[in-house]
Amino acid sequence: MDISNQTKHPQQIIPEPGQLVEVRRRQWIVVEVSSSQLPPPSSQQHLITLSSIDEDGLGELLEVIWEIEPGAQVIERAGLPSITGLDDSDTLEAFLDAVRWGAVTKADHRNFLQAPFRSGVSIEDFQLDPLVRAIDMARVNLLIADDVGLGKTIEAGLIIQEMLLRHRARTVLIVCPASLQEKWRVEMLEKFGLEFQIVDTAYIKRLRRERDIHANPWTSHPRLITSMDWAKSGEGLRSMRDVLPLKPSYPRKFDMLVIDEAHNIAPVGRANYAMESQRTRFIRSISPHFQHRLFLTATPHNGYTESFTSLLELLDDQRFARNVLPDEKLLNQVMIRRLKSDLVDSEGNPLYAQRKLKALSVEYSVQERSIHKKLDEYCHSREQGAEKASNTFGTTFVNQLLKKRLFSSPAAFASTLERHISTLTHGKRPNDKNAMADRILHKAILRLEEDYADDEEIENAQSEAVEEATHYTQPLTNEQKQILDVLRQWAQVAKNQVDSKARAILDWINTNLKTNNQWNEYRVILFTEYRTTHQWMHEILASHGLAGERLAVLHGSMPQEEREKVKAAFQTSPKASAVRILLATDAASEGIDLQNYCNYLIHLEIPYNPNVMEQRNGRIDRHGQRQKEVVIWHPVDGVDKVNTRIGGHGDDILRALRKLESMRADMGSVNPVIAPQMSGLIEGTIKDFDTRLAEARIAKTKRFISVERELKERIAKLHDRLLSARQELHLTPEHIQIAVNTALMLAGRTTLEPFELHDAPSGSVFRIPALSGTWARCLEGLRHPHTQEIRPVTFDHSVAKGRDDVVLVHLNHLLVQMCLRLLRAEIWARDDIKKLHRVTVRSVPDMLLESPAVAVVSRLVITGGNHHRLHEELTIAGGYLGDKNFRREDGVNKLQQWFEQAKPVTTEFSLLDAFRMRFERAQNSILQSVEARSKDRLQYLTNTLQTRKERELSDINNILNELEITIKSELAKDQQPMQFSLFSEDERAQVKRDNAALEARLARIPAEREQEVQTIELRYTNIDDRTFPVAVIFLVPESTIQGGAA
After folding, report:
1. Among 309, 757, 785, 931, whose CB has the most other CB atoms within 10 angstroms?
2. Alpha-carbon distance values, 631 to 274, 525, 599, 664 (Å)
3. What's the mean pLDDT when you consider all of the chain?
4. Residues 603, 613: contact at Cβ < 8 Å?
5. Angle at the Cα of 408 from the Cα atoms of 403 and 411, rounded to 5 degrees
6. What DSSP element (H or E) covers 103?
7. pLDDT class for 113, splitting at 50, 70, 90?
């Protein structure tokens, strides 16, 4: 091990992580080194990732190929600091904290979590569980199936952050619904300080304009977000195919794949068997090229075993195979599921609000009742005609859509009815209906399930589907024409009027949001599926004096910036923001958090899809809800008489919806089993769900979707682990604040100003001074999203919890990051430009130390094969600094004791020159003691790393052996499912494909086992240590300080 100061010729040495190099006339720290995988006779090349230490480019990353980079050279390995003066004790401690917080990778990784301290969000203890599981896995494959609103995004962010910090991942791809892309980008930036780029058509155009026509979006930035439906086809898919190797390479091409709403990629349940979708095929093609995978969904199981096992296989094809029931022990290793109702605080009180479902009673007029009856007559008549012609599919679709839109609003009904009549009257009817026509129709209807961020697109897709379906329906009879005329005449008038349901909502608003005719501080969200209903309701509210500053609207056609403003106004305290009503469409609000000051929600129509209802409810029934109850209203007919009632009885509907909630807890999803019955319940043709089939499926799946209920003890342990990390790593608000102030002072900037904030402890809140140049970016995010006032900051999570008038500045906040980089850069600063001496003096009680001593704090980095970073830490070495010689103190505990009892020396230290001379004379011996300490640590850690390697080898062998046995036994069974003769042609083809895939998977196992073992062996070969001395601390007996003699 070499820790002397020297310059080497670039041809002689490849830089190592942690070294200082000069590239392109600037100084950089080596972050990562990767060797090329080219076979001989190609000469090996190295891709070096560098981080800038210049003050105006702190943290800027650069990648170079070392062998061909002109003028690249290794400057030095860090030697002992020169004794050119003294720093005060606090300044040096802040510098050491900066170095300590940069050393994250641990051989024994279980005891230290850093990500929670690098997030600007109040983390509940239960949210640490997925993080601890992830860092314990050699390859992170986790299915986080927590209830809606438990904070899966935060849990994923913590895992991403920790993996990046530990150098276990560099590239991350998040795949999510289109409407959630911006939410992910903002949350990763604001809550974790991580910058992600959204990959879409606009991004590709910009990238190719700025770089060149061949620039590939998937390799353009280490952290990316994309939408599932954009990436699965077209330019997204083509570019992905360009960068993926033909078969998975070792190491993998990319590091981490995160899939949000992962149930969308599972095969879709059909009549008898789940069919693979384009989404499934896309993820199947990219998933093997990622080292780690993180799937998030509140609805993991849709009732189809083949669908659930396929989802598990996409997550981890070494533990699971499609159509093979998962082993419970293996499933528990990768799946985490907790329900809101099971989570309690330390006193046993529920952590989450209780949900109350209520009926919003609507007194329909005689005319409205007659219109609903007329539509039922029309639909019944059309279905009878379709049955005779064996053409029910399109007719059923059109009928249900007409009913759904009539339940929503007269305006929504009018537009769909108009399209239906227009197609029947003017559309060209095909002469015959063939298989191709069937496919076109199915495709048009399936398009409605696409992921649209814009509800105008949803309306267009629905109109096209209505037109396509109407083309293939029977011509109208005279009686049907007459009914349509009546419906049309009514709709044209009613779409511009206030109907009974709108009147009930107006009454509700005046009763619940006003006290003595004055607005109170309650808020409500009005949800609708359709943009047409949204516009209709907006006009009604406006005409009744309920618009202006009291009403905010959210719909999919709004620019992102506008949506953010609305969200900010609604999430701000009612004292500071006048908004009381939010009128929103489903597409615009998916994934938006609206729970801060709202616990009331009204469904303008009850969704036919239970998952849509859960998404809506989850906007306010989620992590961060301050009230003890969340109350949700459903519009139902206020009349009991069966023959005149519109839709189902209110009591029946609410009872069934409560049953849905308990089924969702059991399965995580009720959709394919119960969803078809929702229409009957809402329309009143059934009084309750037939749950026999669902319960049979639940019985089969219940053992796989087990909810973790023994949480209390485990959560307490996680809490203790976090506290011990905080203490050991000095991660307290006070230490972070001192580090920031120290760096600002060194940079010649004004330090933080204490600020008094109502209800916050004195000395915990600060104002950031005006900053210019590259530092100005640190001020981003200080403006309140609604009031635009500049907010003060705190370093204390407990001060920031539940309030938006102060900003939490965490370890990964740009201000802290720039300050820490500035401090760490001092390790490499030349004597003529350095701002810190990295030397201080402390006094120790005489009973512990009789003569002067010196301690050197060093950063130890241990690497394995291909310079893979395995461990880093701060070490202390030192001994007695005599007049003539230096004697090493071997006892680490003794050195530790000196440090714990040492006090800063506040008076002028007159003995510095004498100590400098002793230090310089003993420099080689002191370096040897540092080296000896590193070797001791290396020996100890090698055993820990050896144990870890053996565990990883044993795990991968056991997992693959078990998979081999399971697949063989599955293939030995009769491969045809029950009632195979009833399967459609497509379903049969899917069964054959699934069986062929199982056989192919079995064939790949031997080569994969060999490759995995080689990869693990390589990671732990050539274990080597690199030591960088960072600070010198002179320790002096108290009596010496007082007497002034050494």
Report:
1. 309
2. 36, 11, 6, 19
3. 84
4. yes
5. 95
6. none
7. confident
